Amino acid sequence: MKKTDERSAREQVVQLDDSDVYVVEHGDPAAPALVLIHGTMVSAVCWEPVMPALARDFHVIAVDLPGCGRSTTAVGGLDVPAQARRVGEVLDRLGVRPVTAIGHSSGCLVATSLAEQRPDALDALVLIDMGPDLTAEYPESPVAGLIFLPIVGALLWRLRTESALRSAARSGFTLPVEIPGVLIEHLMRVTRRDFMGMTRGSRDFLTRRSLPDRIAPLGLPLLVVFGTEDRRWRVSSADAYRGVPGARTDLLEGVGHTPMMEDPDRTVPLLLDFLESVRAGEKESDINAR
Question: Residue 215 — φ and ψ, nearest 5°?
Answer without folding.
Answer: -80, -35
